[in-house]
Amino acid sequence: xxxxxxxxxxxxxxxxxxxxxxxxxxxxxxxxxxxxxxxxxxxxxxxxxxxxxxxxxxxxxxxxxxxxxxxxxxxxxxxxxxxxxxxxxxxxxxxxxxxxxxxxxxxxxxxxxxxxxxxxxxxxxxxxxxxxxxxxxxxxxxxxxxxxxxxxxxxxxxxxxxxxxxxxxxxxxxxxxxxxxxxxxxxxxxxxxxxxxxxxxxxxxxxxxxxxxxxxxxxxxxxxxxxxxxxxxxxxxxxxxxxxxxxxxxxxxxxxxxxxxxxxxxxxxxxxxxxxxxxxxxxxxxxxxxxxxxxxxxxxxxxxxxxxxxxxxxxxxxxxxxxxxxxxxxxxxxxxxxxxxxxxx
Length: 345
Fold this sequence. Notes:
Layout lengths: L2 E11 L2 E11 L4 E5 L6 H9 L6 E6 L2 E2 L10 E4 L11 H6 L8 H6 L1 H9 L15 H13 L5 E5 L7 H18 L2 E6 L2 H7 L2 E6 L2 E6 L1 H6 L4 H6 L4 E8 L2 E4 L2 E4 L8 E7 L4 E4 L6 E10 L4 E7 L9 E6 L8 E6 L4 E3 L1
Parallel strand pairs: 3-8, 3-9, 6-7, 7-8
Antiparallel strand pairs: 1-2, 1-4, 4-5, 9-10, 11-12, 11-14, 12-13, 14-20, 15-19, 16-17, 16-19, 17-18
């Protein structure tokens, strides 16, 4: 089951587009994560795909069928809202059965083959008769997903489904939802403003900014080769070093750095260095001298800001490094850079 968006433009006020010329493809069984800050047009895009908002231009094809002008109920699209939106007066089984023609009572819903299949898929067989208020937040989201999958949709839309969960539960539910979608083999689109969520769950990631698609690709492509500085800073921490390129090497304050870009031009460039590409050492060595300014402790690693020693009267830049060692403010360290690196711009 695949979906193609072609040149979608949409607005809330005539002449003021919220989405501009968006073209995307979701392959069969793929999860596309649509990532962007507040106001980037993510929710409007979801509403256009679901048929809840009319596009000004462009078309949507689902499995080769043009669904641009169809009503929401005719599109064969399942929707998992942000808060799950379960019916509070219906049991788990009855919520899942809501989109299936046939079962109308709690007993009939729990016995329906498709409901039983989905209860097993989301591992909630033992909770079929419970009411939504008796479930945890993660269980409610799994029920909402099962309900969206019940009528055998061609596509599932997930509208920031983990945003209301606490941090520890969010990771667990992400993994559970990803597993369910993988086993169901249905194409899905995840709308999110959470970079870690998009990179960890998406087979592909599409980044929206001010209503435009600024980059799409695999999570690895987005993170290691961002299109510009805005994307680089939006999807993670980054350092930017000015330098002079000669072939596949760039001379910077950290010495000669190898770049992975196929373009091999000479002249001034800017290099992106992710914090994890910088290592800090103490004692004697050949690294670049620096002083620790601050360190944020995260348990599994630390985010450390250092200031390089000044050179020839030029301002001493600061760098953000990700390390698994504890360092104290004021401590003298040596900075090592491990590439290859990516040029920005």
